[in-house]
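Render Sugar phosphate isomerase/epimerase family protein in 3D.
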Amino acid sequence: MRLGYHSITWGGVTGAAAGVTSVKDLVYRVPGDMDRALREISAAGYRGVEMFDGNVREFAEVRDDRPGSLHRLLDETGLSLVGVYTGGNFVYPEILPDELHRVRRAAEDAARFGAAQLVVGGGAPRAQGIADGDHDRLARALDTVAGIAAEHGLSACYHPHLGTIGQSPEQIEAVFSRSSIGFCPDTAHLAAGGGDPAALIRRHADRIRHVHLKDLGADGATFLPLGRGELDLDGVLAAVAESGYDDWLIVELDFYDGDPAEAARLSRAWLDGALDRAGLTVSTS
């Protein structure tokens, strides 16, 4: 296993205001200092980082021979860019071409900076509820996304997320029964959506391409550093090991009421013991 961390903890997630009037320009973005985030992720003992499409796009607009370029920052911190997270509504045919334009741009940026994974969330819940055919539309779009990723030498995986039509175990089944895209299980989102993360990992073991780890509070809504919540994360790691997956484990903590570097260190310390208990080894490269 290799251990990475998502830059989201350094400010949470926002979007781009331009996306209100231009779907093709809507991105996810962390408003915090990404230079600081990557340096603190490295100092906490991680070897990889996942970032949002909007932050990577900002780096893509900086020449590599200038201070602040992502290639230089990755070299200085010893981190690999593991994945880039993007997404879309994926159920509205009229705007789908513009959403796929955005996905393609994210794939181009991910490939430029050496990432292997295009992590994709989405599937819009309509104001009137899920319409007939929405899971079909989502699945077709995800298969197209997987094709775009492959064109750029990337693997694409779907991240079931709260607030989408891929939230509950039944909805996840509806997506995966219609699409061949890979799976990025997120422990806390799966649990908060009513599922058993370990059982879902076992159910879709052959699809796993990427893993997001975070803990969940007793209220079922608060995301926490690993080992600070109620999830059976030892059971999750056992299920991951059984699946045969042996690549990046990404800690992705959306928010921490304190120093984000502290949160990264807390999760890293928990992983040291948990991986040993699961009989998993950590690559130092």
